[in-house]
């Protein structure tokens, strides 16, 4: 065998060996993930289960939604419960569709941040606003782990029926990334939109029940390395978004992705739906903790600000508000760990009780200063 042929053969063999190693590593990783609940049960006698499963249920269009009249007494630790009312909103109070004359109506929408992940029913931002805004009907239709696609669909289907005066959208950057995911962290499928010539098309409804999704997740260990790589590194995927986000912090804004365009199209659809139902949209931009210590605005923050200026949408960016109150050593942090157990988290998105109080005070001041809080008087 000639030297060039030998070198080529060695290169091919090395590449194949590398792929074989990665294939084996991925299969071992997936096997460990599959066995983790059984090992946990053997060691501590219980299988870990997300508390969110207690108060959510399957929905064929949304993937999942809050379960009416659900109650989880120890959702985030002792004495920190989650209650869902008869209409699928967080809290005990039910709200009729018919408006009460002379009473303003406010609707919170979004994901786990405005929902109040980690805090009790009466300690989240919507409950605190209801306490300050006497006479207003303040409803919280936020749902754990929702993307902007589900937020928009839920408002179209259910939120607009309540004819709110104000729709306060608690928006985090992750809601755009979720539109590219297939399954959430506790086993429900997600709806999938595509953008075709400027038109939003919903492609995969009705969605399967969680049991079917669970079976699909178990089938991951049957995928080849090529198939897994295609899922992980397809254009606009969560993996690619993470890499782009890191580059953005180092070099500034990067080229927009298809999921960014899709997310902005969904946001515009939501804005039109809110206006069409007689309400006004207020975007409450909720920062990640790492935004507070970054010398530059996050590209997502900049993009949302530009959109709101162009469309005349009210925007409350909580980043500067939180920046002045967060401590680098996490003492008295505004953020808690994702498990909701109250532990400070260095890269958190969920607010502690202190974070919810600060957000509500900023929101209340914003609404009064812009005369959006009808019947609440002047600025404070």
Task: Please provide a written account of the structure.
- By secondary structure, the protein is α/β, with parallel strands linked by helices.
- 40% of the residues lie in helices and 13% in strands.
- The protein starts with a helix and ends in an 11-residue tail after the last helix.
- About 15% of the residues have low confidence.
In short:
The protein is α/β, with parallel strands linked by helices. The chain has helices at residues 3-44, 112-115, 125-132, 148-157, 174-177, 210-218, 225-232, 238-251, 258-276, 299-311, 319-323, 353-369, and strands spanning 56-59, 63-66, 71-72, 82-83, 105-110, 137-140, 166-171, 193-196, 199-202, 280-285, 314-317, 335-336, 350-351.
Secondary-structure-derived class: alpha/beta
CATH topology title of the largest domain: Rossmann fold
**Residue-averaged pLDDT:** 81
Overall geometric form? globular
Give the beta-strand count.
13
- What is the correct CATH architecture of the largest domain? 3-Layer(aba) Sandwich
Proportion of beta-strand residues: 5-15%
What is the CATH top level name of the largest domain?
Alpha Beta
- CATH H-level homologous superfamily name of the largest domain: SGNH hydrolase
The value of Rg in angstroms is 23 Å
Largest sheet: 5 strands, parallel
Counting H and I runs of at least 4 residues, what is the number of helices?
A: 12
The stretches of 5 or more residues where confidence is low (pLDDT under 50) are 33-48, 211-224, 231-256
Domain count = 2
Order of helices and strands: HEEEEEHHEHEHEEHHHHEHEHEEH
The rounded distance between the terminal residues' Cα atoms is 86 Å
- Amount of helix: 40-55%
Biggest sheet, spatial arrangement of strands = 6-5-7-10-11
């Amino acid at each position: 065998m000639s030297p060039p042929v030998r070198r080529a053969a060695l290169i091919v063999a090395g590449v194949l060996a590398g792929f074989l190693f990665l294939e084996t590593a991925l299969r071992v990783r997936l096997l460990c993930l599959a066995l983790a609940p059984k090992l946990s049960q053997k060691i501590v006698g219980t299988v870990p289960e997300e508390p969110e499963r207690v108060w959510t249920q399957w929905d064929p269009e949304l993937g999942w939604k809050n379960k009416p009249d659900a109650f989880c007494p120890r959702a985030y630790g002792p004495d920190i419960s989650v209650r869902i009312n008869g209409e699928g909103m967080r809290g005990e109070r039910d709200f009729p569709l018919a408006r009460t004359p002379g009473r303003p109506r406010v609707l919170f929408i979004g994901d786990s941040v405005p929902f109040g992940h980690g805090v009790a029913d009466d300690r989240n931002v919507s409950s605190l606003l209801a306490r300050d805004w006497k006479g207003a009907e303040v409803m919280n239709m936020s749902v754990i782990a929702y993307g902007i696609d589900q937020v928009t669909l839920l408002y179209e289907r259910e939120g607009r029926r309540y004819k709110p005066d104000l729709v306060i959208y608690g928006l985090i950057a992750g809601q755009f990334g979720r539109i590219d995911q297939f399954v959430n962290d506790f086993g429900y499928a997600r709806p999938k939109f595509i953008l075709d010539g400027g038109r939003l098309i919903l492609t995969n409804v009705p969605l399967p029940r969680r049991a079917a999704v669970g079976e699909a997740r178990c089938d991951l260990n049957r995928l080849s390395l090529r198939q897994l790589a295609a899922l992980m590194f397809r254009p606009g995927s969560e993996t690619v978004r993470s890499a782009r986000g890191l580059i953005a912090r180092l070099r500034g804004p990067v080229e927009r992705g298809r999921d960014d365009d899709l997310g902005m199209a969904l946001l515009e659809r939501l804005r039109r739906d809110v206006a069409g139902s007689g309400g006004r949209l207020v975007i409450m931009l909720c920062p990640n903790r790492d935004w507070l210590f970054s010398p530059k605005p996050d590209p997502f923050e900049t993009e949302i600000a530009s959109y709101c200026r162009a469309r005349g949408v009210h925007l409350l960016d909580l980043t500067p508000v939180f920046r002045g109150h967060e401590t680098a050593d996490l003492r008295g942090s505004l953020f808690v760990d994702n498990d909701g157990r109250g532990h400070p988290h260095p890269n958190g998105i969920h607010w502690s009780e202190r974070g919810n109080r600060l957000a509500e005070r900023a929101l209340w001041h914003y609404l009064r200063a812009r005369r959006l809080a009808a019947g609440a008087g002047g600025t404070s």
